[in-house]
Amino acid sequence: MIHNIAHGVQAFTSNAFLVDGDRTVLVDAGSNFDAVAHLREETDHLDAVVLTHTHPDHIGNLDAVCEAFDVEVWGYDSAHPVVDHAIADEENVTMGDRTFRALHTPGHKNDHLCFLSTDGEILFAGDLVFQNGGFGRTDLEEGDRDLLVQSIERLLAEADERLEALHVGHGPSVVDDPYRDIELAGQAARLY
Questions:
Q1: Contact, 166 vs 123, CB < 8 A?
Q2: Where are the domains of the chain?
Q3: Could you tell me which residue ranges the Metallo-beta-lactamase domain spans (predicted)?
């Protein structure tokens, strides 16, 4: 089961996905809302927090979540003060009842990761791509449009039409032909 605990929150935040199962994981912690209370409505146990990247809107609730659930944080850059354990490019990560392959996808931020399930059905895309061909900002520190385009192209090469669910950092998840939304994002990022 995958549940966005930030759904309906009116504050500026990223999505924060609770992935329940054998290894219960929170993908990104969001910010500016009581993530602990939202998590407690769904679970009394959390095994880890896994980060797509370390922009403030994705990690603002991290301290409260880690303290409440006594969990550690996994992300790409273990030199970042909030990351306890590094996830290498192409490393397998168990979330819920599935195995996901981490894909280092810079362009929006240098430490950005996407997570594609090994069966190809589920993708956590962070702020790389969004619904309807949206793509991550590159005007922030560490943003790089050429790198972003390369990262989207990598995602297109790794995923395929088996993809059933695209869980993004902002906005709704895509469950209707999500691979097409990645293709549109690649086209838009090259044009604009």
A1: yes
A2: 2-191
A3: 13-170
Which tokens is 31 given?
């910010």
On the 0-12 / 13-18 / 19+ scale of CB atoms within 10 A, 128 is buried
**Closest to 97 measured CA to CA, from 61, 76, 121, 113:** 121
Rounded to 5 degrees, φ, ψ at 94 are -85, 125
Tokens (6 digits) for 13: 């935040």
Give me the residue label for tokens 């399930």: 117
CATH fold group of domain 2-191? Metallo-beta-lactamase; Chain A (3.60.15)
Question: Which three-class secondary structure string do you get for the chain?
Answer: CEEECCCCCCCCCCCCEEECCCECEEECCCCCCCHHHHHHHHCCCCCEEECCCCCHHHHCCHHHHHHHHCCCEEECCCCCCCCCEECCCCCEEEEECEEEEEEECCCCCCCCEEEEECCCCEEEEECCECHHHCECCCCCCCCCHHHHHHHHHHHHHHCCCCCCEEEECCCCCECCCHHHHHHHHHHHHHHC
- Between CA 125 and CA 43 the distance in angstroms is 24
**How confident is the model over 6-45, as pLDDT tens digits?**
999 999 999 999 999 999 999 999 999 999 999 999 999 9
